[in-house]
Amino acid sequence: MNSGYNPPHDPLDILHDDHEVLLVNKPSGLLSVPGKGPDLADCLITRVQAAFPNALLVHRLDRDTSGVIIFALTPHAQRHLGLQFEKRQTKKTYVSRVWGEVAEKTGTIDLPLIVDWPNRPRQMVDHENGKSAVTDWRVIRTSDGETRIRLMPRTGRSHQLRVHMMALGHPILGDPFYATGPALDYPRLMLHSETLQFRHPDGGRGMRITAKSPF
């Protein structure tokens, strides 16, 4: 079965590596981890492990999202970073281009999310059963019927930024799950993980790693 998965073959873009952590700029269109079946086997962690055999998964980015992703290079670092993500001590900033001109300058979206079972992997807002999901946002600029916006998720739900922007009436451009009509007509999902702030597992010093947006 052909899944239509045709990942890019860019060389690894390493942002930082040391004895405990590795940060990479993930290209859009590449899975973070293998999907089901041999046609979805090519993914970022496999490519990373070819160069860094000790690399361990800490978190993921959606296939269509590009940008900063961190891997642990020791079991200690994996535990340390895993706890930081779990306790929401890491800080992520995304840049996005969204449909329409957002009127306000800043805001917060607080809408609980749950998987839309019949339409997996889509997620949906569900005030009864959804898990808490909170996103802060700030407009960078508006022009020609679209808005460039910075998104700061406080929680890490699946598809959180994508569903939250759709719920705001401004779907992310090029989003195959949540955009419709002309908002779909873009070469990729216009969502990029720009910065990640975390504490280094060796000594706890604060680090901030950035990958410039490709759009």
Note down, in words, how this protein is organized.
With 215 residues, this protein is mainly beta. The protein has three helices and twelve strands.
Q: How much strand?
A: 25-35%
Total number of strands: 12
Q: What percent of the residues sit in helical stretches (DSSP H or I)?
A: 10-25%
- Mean pLDDT figure: 96
Structural topology:
Layout lengths: L13 E4 L3 E6 L17 H8 L4 E2 L8 E7 L2 H12 L4 E9 L6 E5 L2 E3 L7 E3 L8 E10 L2 E8 L6 H8 L23 E9 L6 E5 L5
Parallel strand pairs: 4-11
Antiparallel strand pairs: 1-2, 2-4, 3-4, 5-10, 5-11, 6-9, 7-8, 9-10, 11-12
Describe the structure in brief.
The chain is mostly beta strands. The protein is built from three helices and twelve strands.
What features would you highlight for this structure?
13% helix; mainly beta; two-stranded antiparallel sheet
